[in-house]
Write a structure and sequence with these properties.
heterodimer; A: 255 residues; alpha/beta; Glutaconate Coenzyme A-transferase; ten-stranded mixed sheet; two-stranded antiparallel ribbon; 7 helices; 22% strand; globular; B: 306 residues; three-stranded antiparallel sheet; 12 helices
Chain lengths: 255, 306
């Protein structure tokens, strides 16, 4: 029995990956708490952008939604969404965009639209929101998600947000401002992307998880780094911040 | 003397929202006019095309009540909670009838309103490349720049028949001021043929003129001003009341079950004649919980140039 939950490990690993980043476009759910933790640990100067139209948010409580009033009070700027997407995102100010995924393929292409056929879906998911333009215009994309063979799939049912397309060369040939996905953090480990092929590589497994667990929860033949690491345990400080300050009711990090 | 556009919600909806209209009740999480949505349900409008970036609980209620045949949107969920089950039943099971969808991304939707507001034939944006969205929505089209041939995507203007905007305050002529998240309400209002503004407070024109930078929509674009305090519940009005996250969580349970949803509509919408009855029914204790402590802005000096 470990001293922390899988979701807590996911949040901690996501927060640590933000070290050195300055401007971060924050999504709903797990990214929300990961950036809040990063702001209190590895990245105190990070500026948070929310697609609802906020730059430089300093939320005094953990917001349930990305349009919460606590994001506005005390923020550097509040602006219209046209300005947010045009000037801030498309204008090139965003270092990291956080995205979630219902399905992800080996090249980091993302589906958040439908499971099954578009016209008559088995499950109708929320759709793009701002994800499609974030994937194209943010300098890097981080993906935080829970991993299983149903979410890490050989073929996604719908491409909502482009990752490395069919490979790194294809992505680079587009000439987009965004360089594509760079970090994927799940409840099992942390992944990067091979610069030559654009394919995901397992870089580190979280304490308690084995390479075989990650492979079993992946729908393709998973590449593993030669110098595979083990993620350092969450520190007492990280756990205390999550449990006492950021998510005392366990809304995000239950499981 | 400026025209007095103050109307009751009942009269404003009766006069300005018609069967078959394209209706946009905008507001991104903030300032969503649930009160107008409920009045549309009470008056049993039909065959509406509903537009919103995030359909949110307000459109789940309206679509569950059967007012719409089509939804134009960019993110369909209960923010921070999960799914909109009444809409999903229509899409996944055609229960009780199919719902036509026209789907964009957020930037595409705000660009559509901006093009509508600016009287442009399209809005160009760097999005949609190498995705499946243009395949399922033929209104998302690739174009090349006339200045060097660079590829971008274009989306068409969105010009709603009616836009509804909830705001903190307006004067009787409809000059409307908002603070906090402003979403795409300005663009939606300028793009629309008819505009209903719903406010927490009716103020004198002098209040508006003392702070013109805060004016989002000028009265010349506004057809009706409805005074409806707390009309955005369970959404919120910055500085007036908090988002009622408890309700958003409860809605997940209610909207999963068509009978529970019908019962909720009977009790809270058809069972209340006006939004004031709905507000009273929620109870003083709930409203006390939702009232924030003040956080005043500093004031600025515009200068007197006589």
């Amino acid at each position: 029995m470990s001293r922390w939950s899988k979701s807590e490990m996911l949040v901690v690993a996501g927060a640590r990956a933000l070290e050195g980043r300055r401007v971060c476009f924050v999504g709903i759910g797990l990214p929300n708490i990961a950036v809040a933790l990063a702001q209190r640990t590895v990245a105190p100067d990070i500026e948070l952008i929310y697609e609802s139209g906020v730059y430089g948010a300093r939320p005094a409580r953990l917001p349930l939604s990305i349009g919460d009033p606590c994001l506005v009070t005390g923020a550097t700027a509040a602006m219209s969404m046209v300005e947010l997407f045009s000037h801030y995102l498309q204008g090139g100010l965003v270092d990291v965009g956080f995205l979630g995924a219902a399905q992800l393929d080996r090249y980091g292409n993302i589906n958040t639209t439908v499971i099954g056929d578009y016209e008559r879906p088995k499950v109708r998911l929320p759709g793009s929101g701002g994800a499609c333009e974030i994937a194209i215009n943010a300098r890097e994309v981080f993906v935080l998600m829970r991993q299983s063979a149903r979410s890490f799939v050989e073929r996604i049912d719908f491409r909502t947000s482009p990752g490395n397309l069919g490979g790194a060369a294809l992505r680079a040939a587009q000439g987009w401002q965004g360089l594509g996905p760079s970090v994927v953090v799940t409840d099992l480990g942390r992944y990067g992307f091979d610069p030559d092929t654009g394919e995901m590589v397992l870089l580190a497994v979280h304490p308690g998880a084995e390479v075989e667990d990650a492979k079993a929860a992946t729908g393709w033949d998973l590449k593993v780094a030669d110098d595979l690491q083990v993620t350092p345990d969450p520190t007492d400080t990280e756990l205390r911040l999550i449990r006492e300050e950021l998510d005392p009711d366990g809304v995000y990090v239950k499981g | 003397m400026a025209e007095d556009k103050v109307a009751t919600m009942r009269d404003a909806v009766a006069e300005l929202v018609r069967d078959g209209d394209t209706l946009a009740i905008e507001g991104f999480t903030h300032l969503i006019s649930f009160a107008a949505g409920h009045e549309v349900i009470r008056q049993r409008r039909r065959d509406l095309t509903l537009c919103r970036l995030t359909p949110d609980v307000v459109y789940d209620q309206m679509i569950g009540a059967g007012v719409a045949r089509k939804l134009v949107f960019s993110w369909m969920g209960n923010p921070g909670v999960g799914s909109l089950h009444a809409i999903r039943r229509r899409v996944e099971h055609h229960d009780p009838a199919p719902l036509e969808l026209e789907e964009y991304s957020h930037f595409g939707m705000v660009g559509r309103y901006a093009a509508g507001a600016a009287n442009l034939p399209f809005w160009p944006l760097r999005s949609y490349f190498e995705t499946d969205l243009p395949k399922v929505n033929p209104n998302i089209r690739p174009v090349t720049s006339p200045f060097g041939g660079e590829p971008v995507f274009a989306v068409p203007p969105l010009r709603p028949d009616v836009a509804v905007v909830h705001a903190q305050r307006a004067d009787a002529a409809g000059n409307t001021q908002i603070w906090g998240l402003t979403g795409c309400q300005k663009e939606a209002a300028f793009a629309a043929s008819r505009v209903i503004v719903v406010v927490e407070e009716l103020v004198a024109s002098e209040v508006v003129r003392a702070d013109p930078n805060r004016t989002l929509i000028p009265g010349i674009k506004v057809d009706a001003v409805v005074v409806c305090p707390r009309g955005a519940h369970p959404s919120y009005a910055q500085g007036y009341y908090d988002r009622d996250n408890r309700f958003y969580l409860e809605w997940d349970r209610i909207s999963r079950d068509p009978e529970a949803l019908g019962g909720w509509l009977d009790e809270w919408v058809h069972g209340t004649a006006t939004h004031q009855e709905y507000v009273d029914k929620l109870g003083a204790e709930r409203w006390a919980e939702l009232t924030p402590a003040p956080a005043l802005s500093g004031s600025v000096d515009y200068g007197d140039y006589r």
